[in-house]
Amino acid sequence: MKTAFDERIGTALADSRLQAALEHLAFRFMTARNQAAADLPNWEELRTQAHAIKRHTIENLSTYLLQLEARVRERGGTVFWAEDAAQACSYVVELARARGVKLAVKSKSMVTEEIELNHALERAGIEAVETDLGEYIIQLAGEKPSHIVVPAVHKTRGQVADLFEKKLGLPHTEDVAKLTATARAVLRQKFLAAGMGITGANFAIAESGSIVLMENEGNIRFSSSAPKIHVAVVGIEKVIPRMADLAVFLRLLARSATGQKLGSYVSILSGARRPGEPDGPQEFHLVLLDNGRTRMLADPVAQPEGYASAAAGTVLSAGTAQPEGYATLRRETLYCIRCGACLNVCPVYRKIGGHAYPWVYSGPIGAILTPQMLGFAIEPKLPFASSLCGACRDVCPVKIPIPEMLLLLRSLETESMPGGRWLERTGFRLWAWAMRQPWLYRLGSRAARFIPARLLAAAGPLACWRKTRELPVFPEESFRDWWRKRRAPPAGMATGRRP
Amino acid sequence: MKSAREQVLGRIPAAAGGAPPEHLAEVTAWPPEQLLARFMAEAGALSAKVFEADSAASAAEYLRQLAEEKGGEAVVARRPLVDALHLSGPRFHPQGTFPAADATLSITQADYALADTGSLVLFSAEGEGRTLSLLAPVNAVVLPASRILSGLPELFAREPEIAERSSAMVMVTGPSRTADIELTLTIGVHGPGELHVVIL
Predict the structure, then answer these.
(1) CA separation for the pair A408, A313 (Å, rounded)
(2) Which of A11, A56, A226, B90 lies most in the core, judged by the most C-beta atoms within 10 Å?
């Protein structure tokens, strides 16, 4: 059955400009990432350490969140807990209303895309302007980001030129420097006029109550420093225990995302401006967002490492750490630091792009995040849109076992279908039985040789499967026949090896 | 009814306890000449212009020439290292006496630098703040050679009170840049397009 997902995939595959952009992206980013990783002699140790720190933090999440909350409040900040998108959006909208804010500047943040904060602000009559160049382009075009790090990667300079001509009245130019300079000039006025700056955070540090933001443009520094109010919307999984953990995570994040040693600007922000400091916001608000994250966390089923199915897991009792060799896969989704490296290496993302995916999170991480946060109904085929090649796991800076996760989600999705469990089980039982009957196997392999492949492929569901795959050609002689006809090895050569 | 805070915390499984993993032993002492050479190479590769001054006078002269070359106004941070250069003249305005958004050049102070990434570490402080180094199209940063550290692990070991010291610490690694249109590298988006480092 063809779904909207299939339709979008078809559109993406037929778009030659998108295909060229995606190939360019993959080549550039992966070359840079591989060089940057090779440049650090202890890269693998850092990945292992990052995984261990994330695991420890997620196993002690309430401890660290409470510590973070206490530190932020000690420094005069406000902490708001939001169970879902609606609560988070209404807090920000109400705050803006209460302070008479008409214009808010925003930096690129996946979590505010997730909760659609811009729409909520616009509905309340508050102008919200994206200030990252890529996000600004996307906002002018009325689209959604198609990549975690480069949101407008699907747009050509010609399309940006048309957009700036139409929306900003800039005479048509495809000169990237001129387009960038125009955005700088327009957004500079917004930064200086805005009453509120809204950011996400790459990390939140429990021991100090700081948030950490990495960027290249400078728009995050502006958004968090120029307006009177700074609001950071942060998923609860972003907390890390110690400031010094940044030495691990910042190096991994920058190198994995763009191949840089560090982003141009890394801001460590610990509340509003202090006495004596000449600038900075007067108020700092931290919105801690759940929005389905605790559902992943609460899953007590640990899977044996390297293999996953709904049936193979072990139930852990509350408060126990996972045993060695087991992983609570659903929890590990929360280790993600949103570097985008898994998108760049994914043979599926590289063909279909970000807009084919059903939600804001695309690529391999989107394929495991989306079904867990929104349920399978949004796109049941999503966990199946993978070749399970494992490239995502190999580049992941925090070593999330994405392929095992996809297998688990496939298993859960099948079990969630009415009759799905019964149908699949019966099918595999029949197959297992048939494979245990030598006579049936022989009969089947002989019969297959007589049925022309073309005839086989023309019929029913196989025709659909065949569209993108070659049916293997059966050799004229089977291995069994060849083996039987083969001369018996001479005495003393019992292994059957020829000299 | 339970608050959102209680709801969220109530859904989080009981903490497993234990201490976070020990960090890798990475902080090694580099000889000063290696720190300086590596910093200059890394910052230079990011198109920062690095000037090694042999005296406060030569640093001041470099900055005076830079201000002349760029034209317009220069806003100067009121911090000890910059004060020691005694920059004066019609182009130079101490922080707080001229709007930094209208300046061509800002002159600020780095508290540390990181050799292995070519980064400058700036704390928001009295006389400088968060945005002075961001607003003008050209930013010149005065850095004492003795403050160059090997990298991030050493920074966090040397400066354990980052959050106590200031509301904002920024690491600046090269000029402002973007590659958001067709992955074409463009320098100077929202922040400075030109970064000068004067090492004293």
Answers:
(1) 10
(2) A226
